[in-house]
Structure formats: C-alpha cells, structure tokens
C-alpha cells in the first residue's frame, strides 16, 4: 500500500513588489501550518518523503508542519510550483518505492484537481467536499493498493480523509 498526503500551502501574504514565487505566509498561515502538522502527527500520518514546491510559502508551510512530523527526506521541486495536476502526478510517480508515505506541499488549482482526480473511492460526502474546495492549509490523505508510486493514477485511490484548517480549529479559517 502507498499513502499520499496532498497539502496545500498555508495562507500567504501579498506584499507589494514581491514576486509570486517569493510570497511568504501571513499571520493566519503561520498559525495554521503548525496546527496542521500537529493534526497529521496525532493521526499517525508521518511521511517518509516530502515533495515540496520551491515557492517561499510552500517552504515555510513545510518548515512549520514538519516540526511535528520528524525528519523525513525532503526534495524541493520547481515542477510543483503553479503546476497542473498531471505535472504534480509525474513528480509523485518518480518517488522512490522505499517511501511508503509521501507528502506533497503545493498549490491550487493543480493540487486540488489532483486530489479530486485520484480519489475514486472513499466517503462520497468527503470526495464531493474535496472536489468543491481545497482551501489553504487543507490536506487530503489518499491510499493506493500498489507497491509502486509509478503505478498510481486517476480514480485508483481511496480518500482516507480530507481536513481543512477550520475542521481543526474554527479560528484558523481557510
């Protein structure tokens, strides 16, 4: 079995004169990211490998989340930045099979589209909610009955859970 965690970056700021790739997290994002990390750890979702976009907001999200998750191997991928779902899936398919649990920290709309496309099974209500919105700092956990990351594809996964920051704490919004 393979377990994939798709995590959208936490809420970011939009400072004047700062390129999109360099945008940092805002105050809400800096509060939400560690709460999401703690929530993942409490649920036992500790990845072996993290695939993280090179954008500042995804790197800051991963730094805050990873504090609770131990020290998995981290690979930064420019290909994940502003990528469509197919490109993100290509990065995931290249993950080593020794990693049973992989987390991807990326951006919408590609990440949300990928989550909806991969989750062919699981609670219908959760899959519908996932397809409608994938807010900042939300995560989806999708399980696959395969031993190879290269074998995963649309409709093959089972949505194990979909969590938004406001599901953890209503004050986190998102």
What is this entry, summarized?
The longest helix is centred in the first third of the chain and has 16 residues, at 27-42. The chain is 33% helix and 22% strand.
Q: Could you describe the 3D structure shown?
A:
- The protein is of the alpha/beta class.
- It has 6 helices and 7 strands, in the order βαβαβαβαβαββα.
- It has helices at residues 27-42, 56-66, 85-93, 110-118, 124-132, 165-168; strands at residues 2-8, 49-53, 73-77, 101-106, 119-121, 139-144, 157-163.
- Strands 3-2-4-1-6-7-5 form a 7-stranded mixed β-sheet.
- Helix 1 packs across helix 2 (56-66) and helix 3 crosses helix 4.
- The protein starts with a strand and ends in a 6-residue tail after the last helix.
